[in-house]
Structures are given as C-alpha cells and as structure tokens.
Amino acid sequence: MTIPTLTQVSAHPDDRFAIGFAPLSLDEVYQLADAPGNGAVVIMSGTVRDRTDGQAVEYLEYQAYEPMAMRVFAAIGLEIRQQWTEANRIVIYHRVGKLKIGEISVLVAVGCPHRGEAFEACKYAIDTLKHQAPIWKKEWYHNVNGQISSTWVSIGACDRIDE
Q1: Would you write out the chain's pLDDT as a tens digit for each of its 163 residues?
Q2: Residue pair 42/109 in contact by the 8 Å Cβ criterion
Q3: Measured between alpha carbons, how far is 112 from 122 in angstroms, rounded to an integer?
Q4: Cys staple from 90: which of 9, 77, 139, 143, with CB 3.0 to 4.6 Å?
C-alpha cells in the first residue's frame, strides 16, 4: 500500500505561521504583521468564551495535526497574496493544549496598504482556517445535572455562511 504524500506549500518570506502551547501575544503578532507600506493591520483574536450553547464552559483543549495545519496556514497565506495582491504581511498563530476562559486561542493578522483589503483578507484567513485546518477542540463544561462533561468539536465542522 502506498501512502500519498501531502503537497508541500512554501510560505512567503514575510509571513509567519505557528502552532504551539505558549500564550499568544497581540503585540507580537501586530509587530509581525506591520510593515512600512501598511495603511492598516487587521487582527482577529479568537478567545475562549464562558458559554457554549447555553452551557457553562470550564475550559477548552485544542489539538492539531501540526504538519498539515502548517501547510494549510501557508496555503491560506498564498491564496491571500493571490486575491489581495498588495497584502504585505500575513500572520496566523494558533494555540494547542488546555486554555482557560478569556485566553486567546487564535490570532490572525493581515497588513495591507488599505483597510478594506486588510479586513477582507483577515476574514478570509480565519474562515478558511476554521474550515480546512486539522485542529480540534474539546469543550469541558457543566452539563444540565451540574456535572463536568466534555465533547470534541472539529473547528472544520463550523457553520458556513455563504455570502
């Protein structure tokens, strides 16, 4: 049996992609996305909220198939550069491991000469990441009986809103 290899995607040298356990820094991501040609840097910060579907969340656990997720991040960067050709810098950072309420789970930043393209490209990046990257979260919450229970949720299983 032959196992197919995944396509390698090379990232643009000005872009940064990472997956790790360490807390994410808005300041660091902003600095990485900033460039002299930018008129805008748009950052999307995903945080752990305290409720899901009416249930009190205790914490989340994220896991990722890192090699493939990094290729997805790089592919998103290249797609952004094809669609928004003036994009200067693209940053996608995602955390894995146990995250408490209020902690940042994902940061996406795009620097462009104009705000409109920066907003559009940033939205495209997070929406595409959520549907394509092999990243999963396990939600730990209080169920209706007050007991702590959990369920795995694939980020890729999110609802699509076609526009």
Answers
A1: 333 334 455 689 999 999 999 999 999 999 999 999 999 999 999 999 999 888 889 999 999 999 999 999 999 999 999 999 999 999 999 999 999 999 999 999 999 999 999 999 999 999 999 999 999 999 998 877 778 888 888 555 554 444 3
A2: yes
A3: 10
A4: 77
Token output for 9: 């995607």
Residue 24 corresponds to which tokens in the numbers above?
């994410």
End-to-end CA distance of the chain: 42
Beta pairing class for 55-64 and 97-100: antiparallel
Burial class (CB in 10 A: 0-12, 13-18, 19+), 44: middle
Cα separation, 4 vs 68, in Å, equals: 13
Name residue 59's beta-bridge partners: 100, 140
DSSP-assigned states of every residue in 32-74: HH--TT-SEEEEEEEE--SEETTEEEEEEEEEE-HHHHHHHHH
Residue 104: count other Cβ atoms within 10 Å of its Cβ: 18
Task: Read off the pTM.
Answer: 0.87
